[in-house]
Amino acid sequence: MAATHTKKTDTPTAAEFEQWDDELEAQALQTAAQSFTVKHIIKNECFWGLAPKGKIYKLPLALSIDDFDRISNSTNDSESIEGLKRLLATFAPGQETALAKEPIQVVMNLLTEYGAVISKSQGADLGKSQASSRSSEVSTATA
Fold first, then answer.
1. Residue 2 belongs to what H/E stretch?
2. Dihedral of alpha carbons 63, 69, 104, 120, sign
3. Strand ranges for 28-110 from DSSP E
4. What is the pTM of this model?
5. Which pLDDT score, from 0 to 100, does residue 48 have?
6. How far apart are alpha carbons 57 and 62 in whole angstroms?
7. Which of 2, 39, 119, 133 is least crowded, fewest Cβ atoms below 10 Å from its Cβ?
8. Which residues, other chains included, contact 61 with Cβ-Cβ below 8 Å and sequence gap of 6+?
9. Average pLDDT over residues 87-97
């Protein structure tokens, strides 16, 4: 059954509650998830994240060990977010204030995207960068 669509500010009707089913729930959750999507690019050795409402966040690709530890060794989401805010405050002052106003899903998606890029760019999961890995392979092959 198709539910009557209402404006975001309208209170749902009793009929909408009665029509609600798993399919409508899945569609609503997919739409909500899309509204929290963070896009990113890499430019000038920086990670640039675009939040859904247009705010752009700039983060370094070259992290110090301390910065990496603050983000990756967090025991919970709150610590990860605090690490990201400290990194923003250091690298792009003022952005941590804007980040605090974003929905938590946007912040977590930004952190996830950034972490994935850091991992790829620095080989963080392997303990060495991709360039380092290639130079090791060449050195080993020629030795």
1. none
2. positive
3. 39-43, 46-50, 56-60
4. 0.68
5. 96
6. 16
7. 2
8. 42, 45, 46, 47, 117, 118, 121, 122
9. 87
Residue 88 has pLDDT above 80, yes or no: yes
pLDDT reported for residue 8: 62
Residue type, 118: I
135 backbone dihedrals φ, ψ, rounded to 5°: -70, -30
Cα distances (angstroms) measured from residue 109 to each of 37, 84, 104, 112:
7, 12, 9, 5
What value does the mean pLDDT take over residues 70-93?
82
Check pLDDT > 80 for residue 28. yes
Which amino acid is located at 81 in the chain? Answer: I
Average pLDDT (109-115) is 92
Within 10 angstroms of residue 2's Cβ, the number of other Cβ atoms is 7
Dihedral of the CA atoms 39, 126, 71, 105 (nearest 10)? 30
